[in-house]
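Notes to self, Adenylate/guanylate cyclase domain-containing protein:
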Amino acid sequence: MANIPVVPRCSSSPVKECLATVGIATGHVVEYEAPGGGLDYAGSVVDRASRLCDAGAPQAIWVDSATVVSANMLKVSSQMGLASGHGPSDYLTETEETVQLKGFPELVKYREVIWRQGPVGARNGMLTEATENQADSRNSGTQPATLTPKPWAHHPAVSTMEGVVRHWNTTRGQGFITTDAEGGDHYVDRRYIVGEGDLTVGRSARFVPLPPLQEGKNPLAGCTVQEGNRVQGQFQRVFPGPDKEYAFVDVVDARGNRQALFVHLGPEAGTRRPGEPVTVEVCRNNRGIAAQLITDTNGDLARETRGAMTGLGQDGTLDGTPA
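result:
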């Protein structure tokens, strides 16, 4: 019998800011009655699920190889996936990866469940590597080879927040972004701005929330993008087809923090490939922070307003309508 322990973890923020991480492992577990009453579970499978949970970034769902083999992907879905037209094969990362987990001498194989626009990836400081499919290795009689990591697949966007630039010191290259969430303003400097440019007070910005640089200081805004700024990135995932025609562009700051911008491409989606460099302009529409593709037409820089907010609408579906 297969038991699948799930170990969620949330931040201390209010429920609306809850950033859970899920680790799932499949195998035999030991069930016992806890001293305080109720049932509890123990064993290496429980430990593996817990360690996978510790390794994943906020909002990540990591499953071990036994779970992938056992799962019925026809029963896996999410509101965002349904809105995006995902099929059963779209809910798992394409490549199996390995991660070194505390308490496990061997690398643990896992894949990530893509419940939103793209994989979330590992918690900062956690290294993973892709491995070839084991069946291919057995058929060829060779040892499994390590794949070259794809930057757009292994450093995907994590959870983001939106706010307004409250203060910016051009001389020092630092300032603060205020949000509606508890915890005060977020500190930002040029190292944590995509393109290392300046911010404009009063404009909207989106960023990856990070812990403060020093205890007692303001939390940090990493990989910050601001409306009106043009940034360079790479296509992370491209969804061609008449019912999709959008992509996610991976952008990164000087410190390696990343986020993904949702861009509606139209028929051009069929010509774009993951890893291809691209320039986009950050904008804002009635849905929030948006991105639009920059194209060069007859020597003039023309903007194609094809942006949409990255995230869930009030009805829980993907906000993918053109700006």
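- The first strand starts at residue 22 and ends at 24.
- Confidence is low (pLDDT under 50) at residues 1-16, 129-140, 142-157, 297-323.
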